[in-house]
Write a structure and sequence with these properties.
Keywords: Fatty acid metabolism, Lipid metabolism, Lyase, Transit peptide. The protein is an alpha/beta fold. The protein contains twelve helices and ten strands. The relative contact order is 0.11.
Length: about 280
């Protein structure tokens, strides 16, 4: 039976989050749904705050193993809220302080996803543009409906997608990333899969169900091993080859001493299901 965020943490933290972000928990899976459908789930400051708070609360919950990130139809996320941003120009500094706060806040949320102990899977139906494309690229995996489209179209409106570029270039080969950034053209789901931006493409309207199925597959593993693996994955990416091998050898040594490794290897040898403790 699905549970709300109130089953994870006390009600006091809900506030605006209950309006712009929907959070459900079903077993070891927490689903966060961007809920500004009329604005195509654009990342307003309220939504970024809600997403940041929800990630903190979900991460603190030991029984949550995987997070699925979705958008209320008809879009996944259209990027930043340009109307909200334009209103900030009326201030004496022409919006400088507001823009710095917004881009810093958004960058922090993207890093939260990367550093979250649980794997995060994006379920993409509809468009994922600008910071919405950045959001997909920041997730550990992504499932897209076959009508989903991706773009970093800031160049078309005089605003280069500089912060989305950070996540995009860590997912997509350099020349393809430059093409997306310099042309602003939409990329279909199948091409996004070829480029490595998404893991798999499914029939339109089924991305959330498919992402949830993938999440269940992942959630069946040891939560300790998921945390160790995700952390080591991102750490070694930034290291030279020899340092990466030294680091991951240390990680595997510590992992082998964990109870879940002993249990998992024992279960494999004895041909039985493993019983994970997360230790």
């Amino acid at each position: 039976m699905p549970m709300s965020i109130d089953d994870i943490e006390p009600r006091q933290a809900a506030g605006a989050e209950s309006e712009v972000l929907l959070v459900e928990r079903d077993g070891g899976i927490a689903t966060l749904t961007l809920n500004r459908p009329k604005a195509r789930n654009a990342l307003s400051e309220d939504l970024l705050d809600a997403l940041s708070h929800a990630l903190l609360r979900v991460e603190a919950h030991r029984d949550v193993s995987v997070v699925v990130l979705a958008g209320a139809p008809p879009a996944f996320c259209a990027g930043h809220d340009l109307r909200e941003m334009n209103e900030a120009r009326n201030s004496l500094d022409r919006g400088r302080a507001a823009f710095e706060r917004l881009f810093t806040k958004c960058s922090n949320v993207m890093q939260q996803i990367v550093h979250l102990r649980q794997p995060v899977i994006a379920a993409v139906d509809g468009i994922a543009t600008a910071a919405g494309c950045q959001l997909v690229a920041s997730c550990d995996m992504a499932v897209a409906g076959d009508q989903a489209r991706f773009a970093t179209p800031g160049v078309n409106i005089g605003l280069f997608c500089s912060t989305p570029m950070v996540a995009l270039t860590r997912n997509v080969p350099r020349k393809h990333a430059m093409e997306m950034l310099l042309t602003g053209e939409m990329v279909g789901a199948e091409k996004a899969e070829r480029l490595g931006l998404v893991n798999r493409v499914v029939p339109s309207g089924t991305a959330l169900a498919a992402a949830t199925d993938l999440a269940r597959q992942v959630a069946a593993k040891s939560p300790l091993v998921l945390r160790i693996g995700k952390e080591a994955f991102y750490e070694q990416l930034e290291m030279p080859l020899s340092e990466a091998y030294r680091h991951t050898a240390r990680v595997m040594t510590e992992n082998m001493l964990a109870r879940d490794a002993e249990e998992g290897i024992g279960a494999f040898i004895e041909k039985r299901e493993a019983r994970w403790t997360g230790e």
